[in-house]
Known about the structure:
Chain A is mainly alpha-helical and about 130 residues long. Chain A contains five helices and no strands. Chain A has one domain (about 20-125): 3 helical TM bundles of succinate and fumarate reductases (Up-down Bundle).
Amino acid sequence: MNHVHPLAKVKGTGSAKSGVHHWWMQRLTAIALVPLTIWFVGSMLGLTAGDNAVLAVRVWLAEPLNGVLLLAWVIAMIYHGQLGMQVIIEDYIHNHVVEVSLQIINKLVAVLAILMTVVTVFKLISGDVS
Amino acid sequence: MTGRPLSPHLQVYKPQLTSMLSILHRASGATLYMASLLMVYWLFALASGSTHADALNSGLTEWWGKIVLYGILFCVYYHLANGLRHLMWDTGKGLDLKTAYMTGWLVVVFSLVATAVTLLMMMGGVQ
């Protein structure tokens, strides 16, 4: 459905159709983060009893379901955090050049962090636990 | 920026529970974003061998590492609980003053108690 007259669009007063995307993705990731965060904190609390914390985490990650949920959690979290940081930059940085630069850095850091997560979790899942 | 008068801003308003919790939501969110990047580094350390991971873990046994970890934990519980409050508001419920204050205090109590309980569980387990 499009309620905007084409003339309004041409004049630059029409919707870019991205107005609700930020809001929607922030809520979607928030909803996903509720159970995932509780799961992660609970899992970590269950692990801390061991002598070797690093080994305990690697053994825990060797279970595929844990790897999948961990990936989902970290990716949703970074996406959500990136959306929030974007708004903080929009709100407080009034110098246009600085603002756009920070927005670019924010997006690139988020993408890099997600890629690092995917590669490292995949390595931890498929690698030997030793 | 053009010297025009600005509308009344934060400094003219009395601090209230609702406004304090609102800014704390943003502050805890920004903190958690930094923490999530630290989390990615922790995963990276685990994947690239135990020396990185050991270094990170030994940082957690220092007093400042513990304060950082406990601070992050509080932010997790606070942002989680207050985030649920926001999701409730998104449905149009709980926006009246009385309910907003009630859920606000609920969030404060929950995040403090949950942090304390988690600390006790960690002290009972980790060494």
